[in-house]
Amino acid sequence: MTPANDFKQSYIHPTYDSWRWELPDNWITYAKDKKIRLRLHSPISPQCSKWVKEDNRTPEELTRMLEEYMTQLCIRYANQPNVQWIDVVNETIAKENVKDPVFGDQKRGEWFGARQGTSLWENPWTIIGFDEESEIRTPLYINKAFEIATQYAPSGVKLIINQHGNFEEVVWERMKKLVSYLREKGYRVDGLGWQAHIDTGWEKIPGNVERLDKFISWCHQHSLEFHITEMNVWIKDGDTTRETEQAETYGKVTSTLLKHVHEGVVGISFWNVRDEDTPNEKWMGCLWDNAGRARPGYERIKQELINHITQ
Hints:
It is a single chain. By secondary structure, the chain is of the alpha/beta class. The protein has one domain (9-309): Glycosidases (TIM Barrel, Alpha-Beta Barrel), CATH 3.20.20. Helix content is 36%, strand content 14%. Helix 4 packs parallel to helix 5 (140-152), helix 7 runs parallel beside helix 8 and helix 8 (243-258) runs parallel beside helix 9. The chain is globular. The protein starts with 8 loop residues before the first helix and ends with a helix.
């Protein structure tokens, strides 16, 4: 189980001197009671507090906020027996071109960074600075997050990097270099996660499935787990007749993962249960509709699993 937002900095440490632990503590208690394994979706990420997004934040202030949050998160939860994965950073790489008059333009495949104001989607942690001696000029916030997680999380808890998008080649090639860089620094990186918010028909676009397939192999060759950490398949025009087509997309992605289960760890988690649980209710992206009816995609995923275990 992956609680969506309750372990994030935006909830736990929303301002410079305030802390909230009630909701994440409740999840830990619930997981113990129900014998559920938890992924802590707790990354240093664009999903940060408004305080962090304010343009007058200094590198020193942001560094202290990051260090305090990640340290206390790991001390409090990393040794809990039901915690199996910790998302350390996510959405570090820009999946599209972004223009900003204050902090400068960003190109797809470059580091996703700060933007003007607090209302836009942004990643202000890059204000902390960059490793100018790194081949890829790695943002220092990524170093610091993995340094702390490596120090405080036991080896049985897997440390994960998540990235979103449509699995663009330029993005994931940079991710490979980032993993190599972090490991050379002595930090533990145990797996990569893809936040797969994709459109119906994604598998029909030339190169998509092949690129995913090869990347999973690359992960296992480098002792990395591969997870799809947030999957849904949008039907953005709201056409219910396309649910069968949607099922094909779910099925193809699932079968691609299942090809690799004997090579290493693969995982798949789904982003919310019903359409109304998402910010885009009319896009019909979930496995169940608002009435609790399972869409064809649900049955297709089950069939892929059955096909795999009966081969």
